[in-house]
Amino acid sequence: MIFSTHNPCKFAFSAEEEDLEKIDINDEQHWGIIGVPFDSTVSYHVGSRYGPIVVREGSYSFEYYNLPLKTEINTLFYDFGDLNTIPGNCQKTCDLLCETVTDLLNHNICPILIGGEHSMSEGALRAIALNSDNNTLNDVTIIHFDAHRDLIDNYLDEKYSHATVMRRAFELGPNEIIQIGIRSSSLEEEEFVYNHNNIITFHASNVRENIKPLIEYIKSINSKIYISIDMDVLDPSFAPSLGNPVPIGLSPDDILEILIALKDKEIIGFDVMETATDKLGDITAITASKFIYDFLSLMGIE
Ligand SMILES: [Mn+2]
Description:
Layout: H1 17-22, E1 30-36, H2 51-58, E2 65-66, E3 71-72, E4 77-82, H3 90-106, E5 109-115, H4 121-130, E6 140-145, H5 165-170, E7 176-182, H6 187-194, E8 199-203, H7 204-209, H8 212-219, E9 224-230, H9 252-261, E10 267-273, H10 283-299
The structure holds manganese (II) ion.
Manganese (II) ion binds near residues 146 and 232.
């Protein structure tokens, strides 16, 4: 080694390009990070297009040894950089992301998205569906952390939007969607949930009061799992830099406890969306980065 340098455009601890050659795609599970700098349908506070760069930068504040989890971060993952988005066109950008995630899946690499607005999760979920035997998600449970349900069919006359992403995901036929941290919803969404018994809700107030029923529920899951975290699941005191902050949310401790409970499950995708700031060292960005760091640390524990 001649230079002592690091690349702040890649998540800390990412494998080097030459390590990619050594990956045996039939071997163990590998992870690939894709940033999605897109925020064109945001209806309140814009800025999540800067999420990927500030979340990556935040990762350099962590140690190789993850003290709370008592493990070194030895999971093999590679940061592939950012998707070339099409500003103003959510559907086309989702299509591009779907193609990119399909490329990852063809190399037996599971996606980790850094958002960017939440709508982008659809591109990854669609790729996973199209990669399955029956082109659906019927063997996948989506664990969806969010203040909002995101189950509106048409938001401001748009099918593809941050507010409709779980409705589009539902159309891919998942085994179940578990919504955690909900505290804002429309009547349309409440009726939709009432009419579909495979959408399970753990409201923010219930989780804060007693997290145990949720932990027991997710420990009983025996399907594949995709985890989608909208950072607004957190209380704005922990994560203020968001597209749509909603007071009285969860704490980072709650999220970590749930991630730990999921560590032995078959997780096939992970995303952390909606960090909306262009400020280095922003608390929301560092917390988003911590979730990715903790998740990758957990995935490396035998
Ligand atoms: Mn939300």
